[in-house]
Amino acid sequence: MRSIETSVTFPLSSVKPLEGLLAYRAYCLDATRRAVGQGGRRRDYSPVNGVRLEPFGTVEGFEYLRDPENGSVFLAELPDSKVWAKLLRQVVRFRHSPEAFHAELVQSRTDHVYAPKLEWIQETLRLQQMPHPRILEIMTAPSRLTPLLVESRSFADVLPIEEMAVAHPIDSRPDRVVPAQAAVLLESLDRVDDPEALLRGVAQRLEPGGLLFVTALVAFGFDMAILGVQNRYLYPPDRVNCFSVQGLERLIRRLGFVPLEVSTPGVLDVGIVRAHLEYDPTVSLSRFEWQIVQADDEAREAFQTFLQQQGLSSFARIVARRQA
Predict the structure, then answer these.
(1) Burial class (CB in 10 A: 0-12, 13-18, 19+), 196
(2) Are 242 and 234 in contact (CB under 8 A)?
């Protein structure tokens, strides 16, 4: 199985600065409170393996629970799926509005976030000898990746479809679905209300042997391990599921996929902890953690490379093949 590292680096401020995130995060939290306030369901069992979840902590009044077997973390209370779908569309529209920090970083995020993901997809397809496949983009519109996929001319067809429509289809008959050869889910498993249903729906839309591309933030990454529920990048609805790498791989296997690549090529773990410390100097760090965060650039970059190599970064990337 492949494991990929990256030597490309960029500052946290160029893609998701903590100070800029706070207003967007507050909007997300308020919108989620209204959605959850309409009633719904409670998740007491892990979508990975069905084991009973244990307390993890609260984020701005939202209860998160933890899978004791693999460390994945899940929001406990969820509204009806139609309410959740509406919430995701509302949040995405705000994310792309002038009021959110994303609007000021469109080109930077394209260069540092979306273009590298497109290159990863293209290179994997080349290695797997899959020229010009039909590709599904599982997302909530609008997506910054869609135009890059189309403009690359690497695909016979680009088929955007909303993640909640895949997880909760109106018509789930397989004969109504034209299969694709690849599907990409950028953080979709982080925010969908039923990750198991989402992967099952994707599998129905992929040909046997088709490739699944997944990116996700993970619960055992360096910054999550240190900050826990104090991590301001953990909030609903964007982070309603925070899988560990082990949990993510196990779920993908259980839904009929065989992993070909499992990597944690993140570059922002140390930067995220540093940003939290600058924002709130009372953040508690061990002496070793303090030494890492306050080290010079060369030492921090070397430590980030170690996190990548050992599967300990907070950003995961997976390629899997759908079984016949």
Answers:
(1) middle
(2) yes
Contact 231, 272 (CB under 8 A): yes
Per-residue pLDDT averaged across 251-276, rounded?
A: 96
CATH code, domain with 167: 3.40.50.150
Tokens coding 267: 């570059």
Tokens linked to 69: 């077997």
Closest by Cα among 24, 154, 158, 144 to 91: 24
Q: How confident is the model at residue 102 (pLDDT cuts 50, 70, 90)?
A: confident
DSSP secondary structure string for all residues of 289-311: HHHHHTS-HHHHHHHHHHHHHTT
Burial tier of 288 (Cβ tally within 10 Å: 0-12, 13-18, 19+)? exposed
Show the tokens assigned to 249: 């791989």
Tell whether 98 is covered by a domain. Answer: no
Whether residue 298 is contained in a domain is answered as yes
CA torsion sign, 218 to 284 to 309 to 117?
positive
Residue 9 binned pLDDT confidence (cut-offs 50, 70, 90): confident
Query: Is residue 44 one of the residues assigned to a domain?
Result: no
pTM to 2 decimal places: 0.95
- Range of 182's domain? 105-322
For the chain, percent of residues with pLDDT exceeding 70 = 95
pLDDT in tens, 124-144: 999 999 999 999 999 999 999
Structure tokens at 225: 């391990």
Q: Determine, yes or no, domain membership for 36.
A: no
User: DSSP letter string over 205-260?
Assistant: HEEEEEEEEEEEE-TTSHHHHHHGGG-TT--TTTTSEE--HHHHHHHHHHTTEEEE
Q: How far apart are CA 317 and CA 79, in angstroms?
A: 29
Per-residue confidence band for 172, with pLDDT thresholds at 50, 70 and 90: low
How many domains are there within the chain?
A: 1
Residue partners of 256: CB distance under 8 A and separation at least 6: 203, 322, 323
